[in-house]
Structures are given as structure tokens and as C-alpha cells.
Amino acid sequence: MAIGSAAAGLAISAGAVALAGPWDAGQRTAERDQAADLERKRADAERVAGTVPAAAPVLPPLDGGAGRPLSAAAVERTLAPLLADPALGGQATGAVVDVATGEALYTVDARSGRAPASTTKSVTAITALDALGPEHRLTTEVVWDAENERVVLVGGGDTTLTASNLEGLAARTAEALAAQDVRTARVAYDISRYPREQHHPIGAGNTNIATITPLQLNAGRTDGSTHGPAPRTADPAAEAARTFAGLLAEAGVDVQGRSPGRHTAPEDAEPLAVHRSAPLSSLVERMLTYSDNDLAEAIARATAIAGGEAADFRGVDRALTARLEKLGLPLGDVRIADASGLDRDGRLTAALLTRVLALAADPERPELRSALTGLPVAGFTGTLTARYDGSGGAGAGLVRAKTGTLTGVNTLAGTAATPDGRVLAFAFLASETTSADGAQDALDAAAAALATCACR
């Protein structure tokens, strides 16, 4: 990849997508906001000093509809031979939609369900944002069970909870207890937010996902990593509770008992301390960028609870399906088996995925925007960092997409910014592939072709 051209591509893509989110002008949201704050302070200082006038922002984002619309016939001529690549197993389905006009520019078996792998997370994202809103946070609480003289750590489904977060909870809990002149307490943990702890159908002990429970410390990882496959503790909730009890003791509380027990906190338990996760918009971005399976299942269970369903696989299926129907999205041949895409029995269509992406780009629905802005940027971030350096290299910085990989399944769904600034939503789903690398190269080449196609 030519670094200069790739960087230029990233800048074009950031402008063309025109979406307020983590890659405005090529920067993550936090980085952009920090830079903007620093720039405002610098400009204010310069105005006060009378050195230079404050400049207006440059490179305003486009609206995704610049230039003339593309020709559907030209798009088909471009994509048809690429998606016929034998590396895609001979059963690839696909769809391309102009996000500004909603026009379908390409379809091949677009309403035929295929195993979606991790492109499922785009559905998880859009349904959660619609149901909960981008400011929703997952909450971990500590309450005081006075009758049993017990501190209870209550899990709220936050798989991003860190040791530092628990340390803060323990310190605030100790302060609250000291204010009540409580020096000694037992510790318990409450995981009743979910009806049961569940292993994903891929099996217990899999490095791709921990036991699904509402109380986890760093998603049960035991190697210090924050994303990607990792060894997991066998009992994430109990491990988190043990860690909390140790930190509470370090904070000065005389913790009784050998290890925390599992108990449901009474309804009238007194709140002692609380930790809230990052906003859902940030969690969605993290889930998409790093294909975080644990976070996907947690977010979907929050969606299920909001929809009056149980926080388990069946409840997730019902809640996400109902939310997609409410959004008016096509559900033919669709089956939600899980929220992460690890279950091979799930089925999505290219038509649904492109509609989901187009909806996330709708300027009238800014609350859904992180379902798009969190997508990995080709050649730069997340699961696309090491891709787009071969036949798909021309798409570096111009394509952002959710990847999907299972044995024999390779998928890609996202957006491509064309040379004149149009933004296309695409979804390609391939089954019965025999080489993951070959299939990924073929999918990347197809997405890159969209990003570089004049298609008139």
C-alpha cells in the first residue's frame, strides 16, 4: 500500500461519509473533541493576544450525495466478475445501495439468507441504538443488605468493567460504609439481571467469548488483553466478585467469609456506589471496530430487557426481530441466532444489511450514527487494520466495513466512498469458502472496486 495515497483515501472517506462519529476528518471521536477543544483554546488565546484572526473550520464533511448518481448497469459490470471469484465458494450473495438516494445499484440473491458471521453485529448495533438511545449506559452497582450485613455487587451487563473500575467502586463503597460507621461486612454478588448464565452454542471454554453473565471483569480475560481471542476464567462473575472483595478489604473494610456468595439483593437494599459504562454509542463503536463478541451479547441483552424479553438467546431473537420489524427492515429469510454472529445457524440477507447501513447514515436518525462510524476503516483500524494491502489496496481509507469469518463463511458489509463523494452501502456474504485468506482478498477487491469505480 502506498502510505500517501492511503492517507489521502482516509481523508476523502472521512469527508464523504459525512457522519458525526469516531472518524470525523480521520480522527476518533474523543481525539477529535480533544483536538477541537485545544484548537478553541488556542484560537481564543490568539484573539486575546491580537496575533492572528481565528480561522473557520476547513474541509467540511460532504453529505454523501456529491457527484452524479452511479449507473446500476455499470456497478453490475464491475462487481459481477469479482463476486464470481471461485474463492467465494460459488454462492456469494450481495447488494449495493446508494445511501443518499436509497437506490439499489446491485443485487444478487440479496434476499437469500446466509450465515452472516460477525456482520450480525451491525444488526445488534442498530437495534440497540434504536431501543436504548446512544446515551444509555450499562450500570454496575453496590448495595447494602442491612439485614444480612452484606455488601452486594450487582452486575448490570457491562463486559468492559476493568480492575480500575472495580477499585473505584470498592473505594466509594468503603467510604459509604464508613459514613454509616460500618467497618465489617460480608460480600455477595447478584447476577439476577439475566435469567441464567449461558455458554454460547460454540461451547464452553472457547477463546472467542466468555460465559455470558451480567457480571464480568474485562470479559473474563485472564491474559490482560482487551480485545480478540483470549483465555477466559471459568466463572467470570465469581472471579469479579472475588476481585472486588479483595479491593474492598484493601480500602479498609473488614471483609468476612472466605469468598463472596451468590445472592439476589433485596429490593430495599441501600445503594452504596455505582459505576456506569461509556455511552452506548461508544460501546457500539468498540463492538464493531474490534468485533467484540462479549460486548455484542451484552448489548443485545440490554435491548431484550428494554423490549420486555428475557436476557437470553431466545429473548435476544425476539427483541431484535421485533425491533427490525418496527424499523421497517426486510426480514424475509432472516433468523437471529445470537448477537455476535458466532452461531452458524443465524441467517441474514444482503438486502437487510445494506438497509441497516443506509438507515444508520440517515441524517434524520443521528442517534443511529455510531452503527456506521464504528466500522473498521480499511487498512487502518480494527479488524481491517491488516487488510487492503493486496488487490484491495485501492480501498484503503475509502472502505469501512464489518468483517465476518467462520470456517467456510466469509462476509463483509459496510460503506465505500466513491471518487466523487458518493457513499455506497454494500454487503457481500459468501458460504462454502475453502480459503479464508482467498475469500477475504476477493471481498476486499469487490469493496475496493466500488470505492474506485466511476460507474457511469
TrEMBL record:
<dbReference type="Pfam" id="PF02113">
    <property type="entry name" value="Peptidase_S13"/>
</dbReference>
<comment type="similarity">
    <text>Belongs to the peptidase S13 family.</text>
</comment>
<keyword id="KW-0732">Signal</keyword>
<feature type="signal peptide">
    <location>
        <begin position="1"/>
        <end position="20"/>
    </location>
</feature>
<dbReference type="GO" id="GO:0009002">
    <property type="term" value="F:serine-type D-Ala-D-Ala carboxypeptidase activity"/>
</dbReference>
<dbReference type="InterPro" id="IPR012338">
    <property type="entry name" value="Beta-lactam/transpept-like"/>
</dbReference>
<keyword id="KW-0378">Hydrolase</keyword>
<keyword id="KW-0121">Carboxypeptidase</keyword>
<keyword id="KW-0645">Protease</keyword>
<dbReference type="InterPro" id="IPR000667">
    <property type="entry name" value="Peptidase_S13"/>
</dbReference>
<protein>
    <submittedName>
        <fullName>D-alanyl-D-alanine carboxypeptidase/D-alanyl-D-alanine-endopeptidase</fullName>
        <ecNumber>3.4.16.4</ecNumber>
    </submittedName>
</protein>
